[in-house]
Amino acid sequence: MSEPVSALKNISDLNGIAAIREIGPLGMITLRGDLSDRAVQDAAKTAGGANAPDQRKINAEGDGGVAWMSPDELLILCRYDEVPLRMTNLQAGLSKGHALAANVSDARAVFEVSGPRAREVLAKLAPVDLTPGQFEPGMMRRTRLAQVPAAFWMTDAETFRIVCFRSVAQYVFDLLKIAAQPGSEVDFF
Amino acid sequence: MLVLTCHACGVTAEETEFHAGGEAHLKRFGPGSSDEDFEEYLFMRANPKGVHFERWRHANGCGKWFHVARDTMTLEVFGSYSAQAFAPPEELLSRIEDRRPGWRGQD
Amino acid sequence: MKKYSVFAVAREAMRHHTGWNRAWRDAQPKKRYDVIIVGAGGHGLATAYYLGKNFGITNVAIIEKGWLGGGNTGRNTTIIRSNYLQDPSAAIYEKARSLYETMSQDLNYNVMFSPRGVIMLAQTEHEVRGYKRTAHANALQGVTTEFIGPERVKQLVPIINLDGPRYPVLGGLWQARGGTARHDAVAWGYARACSDMGMDVIQKCEVTGVRSEGGKVTGVSTNRGDIDCDKLGIVVAGHSGHLADMAGFRLPIESVALQALVSEPIKPCMDVVVMANTVHGYMSQSDKGEMVIGGGTDGYNNYTQRGSFHHIEETVRALVETFPMVSRLKMLRQWGGIVDVTGDRSPILSKTPVENVFINCGWGTGGFKAIPGSGWGFAELMAKGQSPLTDAFGLNRFQEGRFIDESVAAGVAH
User: Which part of the chain is the Rhodanese domain (chain C) (predicted)?
Assistant: First the structure.
C-alpha cells in the first residue's frame, strides 16, 4: 500500500505570534445515527476510546477521541493506521441498527495552532467567541474560517486543533499564517 | 448583522455561519395540484413588514435546518424553534406578543 | 416653467441667482384625480410623465410617503445598459436606454447621461459562452453589443488585473452606448416636467389604504385624507407587497436590502463601467471622482435600508481581486435600498385582480436603467389596457409558467 501523506506534508510556520503546524494524517471516522441509541454509543466508545460526548463537546485523549458534530453525527478520532480495524469493529457493532460509519481520514486536513496567542489567531478568522471561559478545552465548535467550513477544539489552554477539508488545506494554512504574522498582536484576550 | 441560535445544536453565532432558507411553513403543492395552488406554493410570499417566520440552515456548523421568528423592520430576532414544527410554538408567539402587542391582528 | 438654458444661466448670474423658481410645485392633494400614482421614484414619475406626454392624461397625482426620489432611485449605482438575453427584457431596457440618450433635451433638465460604455466581465468558460450567446441575441434584437477579448478589456480598463487570483478575465460583453446618469436628476427632471403639465407631485403623503367598490378601485386613503381616482398605479419597489396587501391581492415578491458604497474621491482612473459578476462586484467612477461600488443583497427578507456588514467585505474583496489599486482606497459611505425580487428575477408590469389597479414592481436589483422604458410602457398599459412593452411581464406568467428566463441564478445584475 502506498505511504499516506498529509495534505501539506506537515508544513509548519513558527515565526508568527502563534505556532502553526499541519499534523497528521490522523484517523477520522464519521459516525451517523441515532445518538441516543445504546448500540451507537457503545460502538463509538469502542472505536474512539472515550465516551460519546454531550452536545458540542469532545472527549479526546492524545490522538484518540469522540467529538459531537451534530444531533445525529459523531466524529471518531484515532491513529491513522488503526482506521481499518476500527471500521471493522464499528460495522460489527452497528450491524443490527440503522447507522453509518465512513472513513473520512483522507478527506481532511488537521492543523495545530499553539501558543499564548493561539486564541487571538483563531478569533481573527472565525465568528466565535473565544474569550477564556467561553471556549475551553473539552468544547467542539463547527464554524467557518474566513470562507471555508472548519471545526476546532482545544487540547490544552493554549493549543487548538483544527479540522478542515483537504481540498482547502493550503488556503487554511495561508489564512492561519497571515492571521499569525509577526507584529499582528491584537492583545484582546 | 443578525445573531441567531441554532435550534439543533444550540450554537449562538452571527449570520455568516448560517444560510437563509426563506418563508417558513409553506404547504407544498406538487404534481396534480391546481395552477393556483402551485403558483401559491412556488412564488407567493407573505413578505411582511414586521414579524416573519422563516427557515435557516446552520450551513457552516451542524448542517441542520431550523426555524426563526424575526422582525423584518428592526431585525430583532424573537427566537428559534424546531425545523420539524408545523407552526411556531405558543411560548414563542406569546413572547412576540409581549414585544409587538397586537401583531397577530395585522397578519 | 422657466426654460433652463445657457441664456437663463447668464441672466441669473447677472442678478445673483434670485430669479430661479422652484423646479416643481409643492402641491396639496385635491379631492379627485383621473390617475393616482403611488411612489414618486423614477418609475412612478416616468409613468406620470408619459401618461401626460403620450396620452394627454394630466389630471394626475404622484404621491410619495417620503421625499421625491428618496428610495432606490437615489440609492442605486446608476448603471444603464440593455444587453439582455431575452426579447421582452431587451425590448424594454433598450427602449429605456434610447430614451436616456435624449432625456436631458426632452425634459430640459441635465440628467448627465454619460454613455461611457459598460463591460460585463466573463471570468469563467460558462460566462464566455453565455455572453457570446447574449451578443448574438442582441444582434437580432437590434441592441448594439460586442463580445471582446481580454486585450481589449485591458485597453478599455488599464487598472484591471486580468490574471485574477481566483478567476482570470477571459473577455467581456461590451455595450459602448451603455453608461451612467445622475440618478437624482432623473427623478427631479421628471418631477419638474410633470409639475409643468399640471400634475401634482405630493410628498410626505403616505397611503394607508386602498378603497374599492365591487372589485373596482375608487381611491386611496392617506395620512392627508382620502383621495379619489379612476385608475391607480402602484410603483413602490420594495414596499409593493405592503401596498398589494392593502389592495387585497398577493404578489410573488420578496423584499431584501441591496447595498452600495462609494470610496473617497480620486483622480480619474476608469472611464467605463465594469461589472464582475462571478466574483461579484461592480464599479464606475462618478464625476466627483468617487468610485461607485455595487454590493450584494441580503439573503433574508428585510426592510432595513442598510444591509449586512459582511457583504461589504465580500464586495471589496471581489474588487481588490479585479482592481488591485482599490486596496489603497478608503471607503466613504455605505447604504442600502429595499429591492423587490420576483420568482424569475424579472419585473412585473401588470393589471391586478382589482380593476383599474396596475402594478409596476419587481425590478429587483436593476431598475434604474429601465426607468424611462418602464414609464413609457406602464403609462401605455394604464392608458390603453395593453402595451407591447409590458405584455410579457404580466402577473399571470407565474401561474402559466411563462417566465422570463434571464440568468436567474445571479439575483443581482442579470
Answer: 35-79
**Per-residue pLDDT reduced to its tens digit, A96-155:** 889 999 999 999 999 999 999 999 999 999 999 999 999 999 999 999 999 999 999 999
Tell whether B83 lies on the interface with A, counting CB pairs under 8 A.
Answer: no
Q: Which of the following CATH numbers is that of domain C118-181+255-342: 2.60.40.730, 3.30.9.10, 3.40.50.720, 3.40.50.150? A: 3.30.9.10
Residues forming beta bridges with residue C207, ordered by sequence position: C222
Residues 254-293 of C with CB under 8 A from B: 254-255
Contact C96, C374 (CB under 8 A): yes
DSSP per position, C258-270: EEEEEEEE-S---
Closest by Cβ to B14, choosing from A69, A70, A127: A127
Q: What is the pLDDT of residue A63?
A: 85
* pLDDT recorded at residue A2: 78
Start-to-end CA distance of chain A, whole Å, equals 47
Q: What is the tens place of the pLDDT at every residue in B12-52?
A: 999 999 999 999 999 999 999 999 999 999 999 999 999 99
Average pLDDT over residues C404-409: 66
Could you tell me the sign of the dihedral formed by the alpha carbons of C30, C35, C37, C40, in that order? negative
Out of C255, C304, C309, the one facing B47 most closely (by C-beta) is C255
Show the CA angle centred on residue C366, arms to residues C365 and C367, nearest 5°: 110
Count of CA atoms in the C-beta half-sphere (13 A) of A113: 30
Whether B39 sits inside 8 A of C342 (CB atoms) is no
DSSP single-letter state for residue C23: S
Q: Which residue matches cell numbers 375608487?
A: C218
CATH 3.50.50.60 fits C22-82+85-97+183-252+344-410, yes or no: yes
